[in-house]
Amino acid sequence: MVTTVIITGASQGIGKATALLFARKGYDIVLAARQPDRLESTAVEIRNLGQKALAVPTDVRNVEQVQALVEKALDFSNNIDVLINNAGICMTGPIENTSLQDWQQIMDTNFWAYLHTTQALLTHFLQRGTGTIVNVGSMGGKIPLPYMTAYCTSKYAVTGFTDTLRLELKPKGIHVCAVQPSATRSDFMERAQFRGQDETQAQKYRQQMNNLLETQLTSQPEDVAQAIWDVVKHQKDEIIVGSASILSTVHRLFPGLTQWVMQLSSQKS
After folding, report:
1. What's the CATH code of the domain at 108?
2. Which of 15, 41, 75, 108 could pair covalently with 10 via S-S, beta carbons 3.0-4.6 A apart?
């Protein structure tokens, strides 16, 4: 029986690593992202692995484009088994330097896009009485991070969406799960945005993020892809990847301690 997965943000980083892993596991892949050339390049790699691939350039912030993505996916494969919501951007900077437009952009990409794809595919899953939805979040959806208020808000929204949706859909045969990565050493810095009172401060935050990505606290895209495979294969509710697992556990047990540490970190920045 053919199994098919839709992956958003699939042209690079975690999304691409996940697409290649699922192809090696025997899945056909529907790829969605905004960059057609990179998307098609990933599709070619999947076909070279012996699986079918459909590349659909999509801005998942746009409801009409998401609906078209799902329609094309169902034309490509009669049944969709898994939806992996992965598209996202990172934003760092003081709240006073974060504009309403910044907030709109990050919520549209990191939260509303997940809702768009879920709603577009939900009828299909409900009619079949089966399906898996994986929402790729972040340790920023488990613990507060200084100077990342907009980002953490979007990721906490994803965590709440995932946990609550699971309660509602599990009795209907649909599994909803989360993968929460730590900082991941991928090309997400191409899309990361930094704000400050001036360009010098914004560049300081960019350099701090670059420095973090060079430490042992980071994960590889392949680590996150493996976690995504594990939550699908073993029907787990959540996997927290890498150093995020330790940090989120400490925050859950000792929230006052992590709040104090984060405040110290923010004062040094």
Report:
1. 3.40.50.720
2. 15
Number of domains making up the chain = 1
> Model pTM greater than 0.90?
no
**Which residues are known catalytic residues?**
151
- Return d(Cα 190, Cα 195) in angstroms, integer: 15
User: Span 21-39, mean pLDDT?
Assistant: 97
pLDDT in tens, 96-148: 999 999 999 999 999 999 999 999 999 999 999 999 999 999 988 998 888 99
Domain that holds residue 248: 3-268
